[in-house]
Amino acid sequence: MLTAILVMVVLAVTVGLVLGWSAVRFKVEGNPLAEKIDAILPQTQCGQCGFPGCRPYAEAIAKGEADINQCPPGGEEGIKKLAELLGVEPKPLDEAHGAPKPKSVAFIDEQLCIGCTLCIQACPVDAISGAAKQMHTIIAAECTGCELCVAPCPVDCIAMVPIAEDLPHWKWKYPVIELKRVA
Amino acid sequence: MSRKLFKFKGGVHLSGHKAESNARPLHAAPLPGKLVIPLRQHIGNPAKPVIEVGERVLKGQMIGAADGYISAAVHASSSGIVTAIGPAAVPHISGLPDLCITIETDGRDEWIAHAPLDYQAMAAADLRMKLRDMGIAGLGGAVFPSAVKLDPGAAHSCPTLIINGGECEPWITCDDMLMRNRAGEILQGVAVMRHLLGSTEILVGIEDNKPEAIAAMQAAAQSLDFAIEVVAVPAIYPAGGAKQMIETLTGKQVPSGKLSTDIGIQVFNVGTAYALACAVHHGEPLISRLVTVTGHVLRPQNFEVLIGTPMHTLITLAGERDGSTGALMGGPMMGMPMPDLEVPVVKATNCILVKSAELFPPLPKALPCIRCTRCADACPAELQPQELFRFAKAGDFGRAQEYHLFDCIECGCCSYVCPSHIPLVDFYRYAKSEIWAREKEKRAADLARERHEFREFRLAREKKDKAEKLAAKAQAARAQAALDQAKHAKLPAAPAPELAAAPSDADAKKALIAAALARAQAKKAEVAPKNTDHLLPGTQREIEEIEARRAKIHELARQPLESEEKKP
Questions:
Q1: What is the pTM assigned to this prediction?
Q2: Strands B48-49 vs B160-165: parallel, antiparallel or unpaired
């Protein structure tokens, strides 16, 4: 009887120590689930989901505070991927957060720009170059098309230009084949 | 033919249709009135224009400079005036325009000064850069800049050099005609390749349906000062594919995801060797190539064509016939339909195949895949085309990649044998381009994440720096104020005990308030009435106590929450 209890106690203590040690030794920094969700999100940083950027939205999803259908730039495919990761049913995009749009980049009409720097402060990815009372311009390769710079502009000189298809961006289309009808 | 040959898996036997175009002698196509020269003719970065509109250019003058390591220059194919630099139709299946330089030729065909290169005296790196600037790129179809392929690297060496004269695709005979007519020059180019790669074994693989070409190459090989073996390989499509040619000649397979150089083999097309010989021995950049014009034309034949010549001119030369249904660039298996026949001949144009309803009847309607695996039997890359088709159709690109989608050479054998007439290759091309697009998107997203995170970090840092700066300023002001007060009071130790005893652990906000107060006090002291100047110590202390109380009340009023927390 006593031996049994002793054995159990020793076992419990040993296992407890091992568990405690490994909890410290193999501690995972940050939330690995949020990390995985963040990798799926398109990183537009547009805030249409209601969170200030993709990372906070990812964290909210991980905590179960936000739904997976609040990201219009990610579109249906993004929702599908999130559903697969989280093991839930995919659902249609929540219209309240906006509709998916073709990929665009911002364009500043440099004739109209007054150099107020408001767009620079709004840009979440530092893709606008310029300085106070100097003309601003978009670094097109780094623009995510989030549209956050459009609203603050006092002279409405920023427009969103959809990315036109050109040779380097051309893709083979899904082959449309006519199937023979077999009665 | 003592060499033991190997057989690659799969492949199909096709009727060659070579006799149509290789019976007529090789002609140079006449100089067209207008040349349209695309800047993106090779794999890698497009060339950058180095001339201006209105400028007169000479034949062989560089008009687009190579941009980066994997790139090649483009040159004016004849003398004339540059009339436009801008988007124009290019030979691409999409029909999308691309940046081109248009030259109105003046008919004089005046060469720029050029001289042969003494390649044996040149440093290998210099020679490669020179070849890049002469626009030499692979003429077998992929148009990969040759200078890159001619670099064996520090660790690699290329003991085996294979010259590919396979030309396995039906209808095309430009390599055949080149070997028949210019075998000597091709082998001069091979000598330069051998010099750069340090190869010890040189093999020329030619399909056995080209006996004249084999004979011409063997005759030319006799006069060389190094050993070279001209090997006839069985004509089975796609024996002219680089990997298939390697396997046929050496029995070695290039591992999945590796390059042939990883197993010590480099492969060049005969046309590339010829262009290299022209560049080195005559100093002529790549401005022309042999093009087969065949199919539904009156006189199918080969032309030596200046790069930039409109395809339609060549079709007219070969005799246009009624009832054509468009043209392919390349052969019937891998060729691309041209959206428009005004597009120019580029470095990749080996053949213009004019279609007609009799020669190329439209494919019967497709039936569902019955998983008969005939495609798998025919696949020379040893893939499972029926599985790749299933994954590509379902958009399951991850699985498609697991099934080695990127080992597919798009030879078209699977589509050819498919009893259901499914255009299988179109699905693989779709899947490949989707995967590339996704990878590009992923890279863009990673860049955006990185930039966003850095911005957050920068903003936090700026805020912290600002607070620290203010705190430091406040401390300095406080010390100054204390000093001033001490001066005014002529009492070094006593003044403002609460303020002077600035607690070092005071938070930034408190410090800010203190600083503001100190500033205000200092200002007040400046404009203080004269009758408060010489006060008794007692009165002074009283005033200070009142001031301190006032300050405290101000502070409490400003931070109601914080003080409430402190009270209990």
A1: 0.80
A2: unpaired
